[in-house]
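Why do we care about 3D structure at all? Because function follows from shape, and shape follows, mostly, from sequence. That is the central idea of this module. The next example makes it concrete: a single protein chain, its amino acid sequence, and then its structure expressed as tokens.
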Amino acid sequence: MSTICKRIGTYAVAAIAIPLISITAQTGYAKEFTPGKTATVIVTSSPGGGSDTVTRTLTDIIRENKLTDTNFVIENRTGGSGAVGYSYVTQHGGDENMWANIGVSFFTTPLLGNSPVNYKDFTPLAAVAEDAYVMAVAANSEITGLDSIAKSGRMLSGTTGIVADPALIAHRLEESMGIEVDIVPFEGDGEVTAALLGGHIDVQFGNPSEILPLIQGGEMRAIAVSSDERLEALPDVPTMKEQGYDVSLTQLRGFVMPPKVSAEAAAYWADIIGKALKSPQWKERYIDRYNVVPKFLSGQEFAAEMDRRNTDYTALMKKLGLLK
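And the structure:
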């Protein structure tokens, strides 16, 4: 049985602006969609965070490559673990010049009953990348890999909230490895790192951009990655699956639109995003810089991925006793 200290932090929200164009021939739809002069992107976290970074990077690249004549305006609308920003977007039903980022809170806040809207209230636009998690231990830890944890029969992990990807990974490892996992929630990633380096927890699951500097500095060691394939930045670190445990999970980065927008509008914007993701700037400034995994899904494929993610979070929250 898992022992979990309950503490749920809050999340934030943001927004952006850039130019747009019409490409009926490329979408394959008979009806032409003509974008407005300005498109608004709502970001549900504070400036400088992961959602804000991916949004600004993507829209800058769209503008620089002149993929559309529309001007993008980014607005950070924070509060209520995403509820404020997402509620704002649904109030603009039919607005075909508005996007919103998605993150973990896009799914978890509604499940907790803390948002009047859920992922089904939006029009799927596109997934653009996914962040793998690096499973790390302190440099002086006796843990050498997942097998050594399995032999000990226990694992103490830290997370920035019990309804978060690191907690979900820990619970999946608990089931796959047949061990007992204790999860301690902290206010932020910095506190988790301090606890790990101080010997108060055994492992931490962090994004590459956060973990790599500490690994390179000799303070931490990576023992596994949560993606299906190894990361280019850590070619010698095996995946969890390679070590014999069927566990993989990444943080999905993507965008949705308000309800009641046309298929032509969604297809147009997805096409623009797809073109931006093929650019050398995207690879250099985002994929390589932040060591994320490329991923482009749109339309029904993206909708199916959101269904799967929501199912995963629902199962985790039931396991934690947060849902019946």
